[in-house]
Design a protein that fits this description.
5-stranded parallel beta sheet, 8 helices, alpha/beta
């Protein structure tokens, strides 16, 4: 059983353009106690993205080396690029008692759940499909053919939403971030994480 002193792994997925990155950024601003995993990727940086902050931007060769050396907790291929979660950051922070957020797509999420069944699985949804299209077009960071590819991918990913524990609707960034925080806090109180404490109180009750 996982000790209660350890942090929890929190997987956050959601369609491209749903604003999950912005929601997480808002959560970290008000709750800096969370640790956000920075993924490695072979995709090109967007104009505003900083190496080491948004992603570790690396070559395909380097990524494949990380796979070979077992440096990744999980990885997946998304629209012809690799994305993966470096392992040490996650294990170090969990061991130090910090909750670690992974912003990853569904194939990676499934691998994390299989390897770490205690991971909390959250899926960020748009208020409607139409809002998602408008946000993706409005973001302006993708070419029109990439917007279409991301929407087709969203339709496929939508089939797996029931594998997640909770959905969060991103109707308002700050409100959504607070709901995310509440769900994570509640998750810490799950009975199965406190079996030792429960048993201790049970034993003490008998001996009173
Ligand atoms: P984007 O190119 O929009 O930054 O990311 C594309 C997709 O890859 C998003 O759904 C994002 O959550 C996902 N992603 C980012 N990092 C990782 C990772 O380390 N592993 C996996 N499996 N997916 C990731």
């Amino acid at each position: 059983m996982m000790s209660t002193a350890e942090g929890k792994l929190v997987v956050v997925s959601g369609f491209s353009g749903v604003g999950k990155g912005t929601v997480i950024a808002s959560l970290l601003e008000t709750h800096p106690e969370y640790a956000l995993s920075v993924s490695a990727t072979t995709r090109d940086p967007r104009e505003y993205e900083i190496d080491g902050v948004h992603y570790h931007f690396i070559s395909k060769d380097r990524f494949e080396q990380m796979i070979r050396e077992d440096d990744l907790l999980e990885y997946a291929s998304y629209l012809n690029n690799y994305y993966g979660t470096p392992k040490t950051f996650v294990t170090d922070n969990i061991a130090q008692g910090r909750d670690v957020l992974l912003e990853i797509e569904i194939q990676g999420a499934r691998k994390v759940k299989a390897a770490c069944p205690d991971a909390l699985m959250l899926f960020v949804m748009p208020p409607s499909a139409q809002v998602l299209r408008e946000r993706l077009v409005g973001r302006g960071s993708e070419k029109p053919e990439d917007v279409d590819a991301r929407l087709r991918r969203a339709a496929r990913e939508a089939e797996g939403i029931e594998e997640y524990d909770y959905i969060l609707i991103n109707d308002d960034i700050e409100a959504c971030a607070e709901r995310m925080h509440s769900l994570i806090r509640a998750y810490h109180q799950k009975t199965s994480f406190h079996l030792d404490f429960i048993q201790e109180v049970r034993n003490d009750l008998i001996n009173l």
